[in-house]
């Protein structure tokens, strides 16, 4: 069986927080605000994977009301989602992602992001694709108020 999932996430940029996207710490004047490390890319991937197998979203599995997971590394969340996929007897065919922001520049970091994501997803780097785009300075993302990401995945039964 082949199943498709999609995910979307957005977080506000704020002073005093690290900017972590795709598991990579990126030098930037601002970082992403959230209950976890606010990694928009990994959150979008997690939601796509969970959606593909009908298991809700990361908010159900990692609620922001749980103080025990405050500041959790999103790579841990992704590895947990992969465990759910494996338990349900699914494996990743591919994941395609887009990060949406004016700054920081994403392309210098995509190779490292792909490496981390493929490690955490236990799949080949060739199964992961990451793109970046801007909103041409339109809207809140265009003004640099936040960063968004979307992901689409295909999974298949083992």
UniProtKB/TrEMBL annotation:
What EC identifiers does the entry list?
Answer: 4.6.1.12
PROSITE patterns tied to this protein:
ISPF
Identify the metabolic or biological route this protein is part of.
Answer: Isoprenoid biosynthesis; isopentenyl diphosphate biosynthesis via DXP pathway; isopentenyl diphosphate from 1-deoxy-D-xylulose 5-phosphate: step 4/6
* Residues spanning the signal sequence: none
Q: Which InterPro entries match?
A: MECDP_synthase, MECDP_synthase_CS, MECDP_synthase_sf
- Cofactor comment in the record? Binds 1 divalent metal cation per subunit.
**What positions are marked as the site Transition state stabilizer?**
35, 134
One Gene Ontology molecular-function label = 2-C-methyl-D-erythritol 2,4-cyclodiphosphate synthase activity
From the UniProt record, list the reaction(s) this protein catalyses: 4-CDP-2-C-methyl-D-erythritol 2-phosphate = 2-C-methyl-D-erythritol 2,4-cyclic diphosphate + CMP
How does this protein assemble? Answer: Homotrimer.
* HAMAP family attached to this UniProt entry: IspF
Function recorded in the entry: Involved in the biosynthesis of isopentenyl diphosphate (IPP) and dimethylallyl diphosphate (DMAPP), two major building blocks of isoprenoid compounds. Catalyzes the conversion of 4-diphosphocytidyl-2-C-methyl-D-erythritol 2-phosphate (CDP-ME2P) to 2-C-methyl-D-erythritol 2,4-cyclodiphosphate (ME-CPP) with a corresponding release of cytidine 5-monophosphate (CMP).
Q: What is this protein called?
A: 2-C-methyl-D-erythritol 2,4-cyclodiphosphate synthase
Recorded source organism is Methylophilales bacterium HTCC2181
Gene from which the chain derives: ispF
